[in-house]
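Re-running CCA-adding enzyme to confirm reproducibility after the cluster update. Everything else is unchanged from the original entry.
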Amino acid sequence: MRGMADKSLEVNLECVNDYSYLYEPTPEQRENIEKITREVISKINEVIEELGLRGVIREVSVQGSFARDTWLPEDTDVDVFLLFDKSFDFEQMRKMTELISGKVAVKLGASIETRFASHPYYVIGFNRVEVEIVPAYKIEDIREMRTAVDRTPFHTSYITSSLLRKPWLKKEIRVLKVLLKRLGIYGAELEVRGFSGYLSEVLVIAYDGLVPLLEAASRWIPWKVLIPHDAPRSLIGTAPLIVLDPVDLRRNAAAAVGLEQLSKFIAFSKIFVENPEILCCMLEGKREVPDYMLDENIIILRLLSHPPLSDDALAGKLRRILDSTRNTLERNGFNVLRGLMVHARRDFFLVFQLETSVLPPLEKKIGPPVWHTNSKNFLRKWASHTPAPFIDGDRWVVISERKIRKAEEVIMNALKVYKGFEWEIMRGEESYWKIAEDEYREIKGVLAGSEIWIYCLKKYVSGHKL
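Result of re-run:
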């Protein structure tokens, strides 16, 4: 790989070339995607002419990783932007894009789906390829932006021109994207809170290669990372990772990256510096499924129904429900070892691994110090209680019966405030019979640590023989 920091890494990473070709689109794949894209764009232009919108839609262009030639063979989706004149009303632009997309789908005999990001876009499914039709404004200067996606053509231009100067970085970008996928931190959507494709490209270009990036990341400390290094120091601490967008210095291109996701990337990078072969293990993609039973102290919630929300909004809401429910459990005396959101097949699950799912019948309530004015209120409440309050050290204490002992009761009470959400609740051991086998395996795998990077961690760090 180009951009090697030292000869030892270069020797150790020769194996990367044995795998990297797998993530390079073949000539046949390129030709197929290009043919489909041309056909879709041809129909778009046909509909634009039929509707007399040529003066309103200034440009139809391909954007995203396909336009930048940094796409992975497994990601067969293409972004086609309809760039409207900036004098056009936003709601009209949305309606017109919906109309155009619908007519194009009919002409192609293709499926169509509405999705949401910063604003709606339309996905045409045609010959096993997803073509995303995105409305945006045609602008000449980034300061003229009216919607978040208006900057996308600037992103495409920046990445394309950078890679024209250093075309070998395309392979390294693809390897980084595969690595991030294997780490489970690829994608800026709320379900993942990871590294977007554009951010991946910007980082490899900024560090002039994947290995220099990983070496630098091994020294990163969350909330103290600022790229480029000459950016205003006042930004430090405003996000776990700050990478100023090269085309819009007002924007943090890494704003979506969560603390846990950044920490996982840093952890891998630190291991990589000591054990470079772990990168080849990650590209190989093996994993083991440990023998691990889901017991009665694991509580699983399956989402049955929810209010109408976009995928991203739903994932964000579920994360908030997860955090709130975890806090409620802990306030009620349950020690939550782990709380997870798992998306398996088309189902969402919230999973709570507890030290125990049933608490003892009695609990110790610690009151104020005997000399504190609040001790009067404590005694008013508990003086007639049996067993009676007593002094432990300098504090009043009482032993009382718990009102709620079962975690399921606490959870279901906590969930009542979320109107429109319906759940099925089950313990770990019974989930085997209630959910699909592949969903059970996914949940078990996440809890047991069957991720690819954990397999590689065992192989190269713990001395575990695999």
